[in-house]
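quick one, 253 residues, struct below
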Amino acid sequence: MSAKQRGDRKLKGSIGDTTYKRGKNGNYTAYEKVESPAKKIATDPRFIRTRENGSEFGRAGNAGKLIRDAIRSKMKLSGDSSSIPRLLSELLRVIKADPVSDRGMRTVTHGPVESLEGFDFNVTAPLSIILPVPFTPTIDRAAGNMKVDIPGFIPDKMMKVPTGATHFRIISVALELDFETGQFIADSKSSDNLPWNNEVMADIHLILTVTLGSTKILFLLLGLEFNQLVNGKFYSITSADFSSLKLVKVSAA
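---
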C-alpha cells in the first residue's frame, strides 16, 4: 500500500511502519510496511494449523531420509521414481496416527510404524513378482538378530531375470532406527551368487545382527541383485524392471 506526498514537506526514511522514498519524478511516496508471508505464518495465531502440518510434514521427510541413508551404502538396489514421495506419504500417515502426542508434535516412533510392513521400494518390480517364493522373516529383539528363511526352489521355473543375467543374489538388510536422533545401525547379508537354472537350490538362511535387546524401531528388508558371469568374473546388472526391495518385517520400539 502506498500514497504520494505532494506538499512542501518531504520525508525520507521510515517512521513507524511507514517508509518514505523519492521516486524518479521527484515525488515522495509513502509505503506501508507489510509483514512477510513467512513471518506471518510463523507467528500469526491464525496459522497455527499450518505450522502444525508443516512440522509433521518435515518430521516425515526427515524419517524418510534416515531410511534412505540407512540402506544406501548397504544395497545397490534403488527405488523407482515414486519411491520417495510414496514413502513420505506412508510415514506421514504413520505420524498422523500417533495416538499419544499433541497435534503438530506427533512422531513416527509413537505411530503405528508396523503398518509400513510390505512397502515395496520399486512398484514396477514388487518382490512378490520378482521372487514369487515363500519366505519367513523374523525379528528376535531380545537375541539381537533378524532372520530370513527361504526354502529351496527351481530358479528357472519361479523367477524371471533381466536380459543377460546368469546369476542372482538374495540380499537382506537389518536396520535399527532412531527417528528422534537421526541415528541408525545397519547390517546386511546375502546369499552366494546363485545360477539361474532348472536345478533345485539349497535352502537359504540369512541371519543379521542388531543391538542386543534394542529399544529402537527395527526394519528387515529383502531384495535381489542380478549379475552376469563372464570369464570367471561377475558383473552387476541393474534394471528398473527387476530391482526389487521390500520392507518385509517391522518391530516397533
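The chain has five helices and 13 strands.
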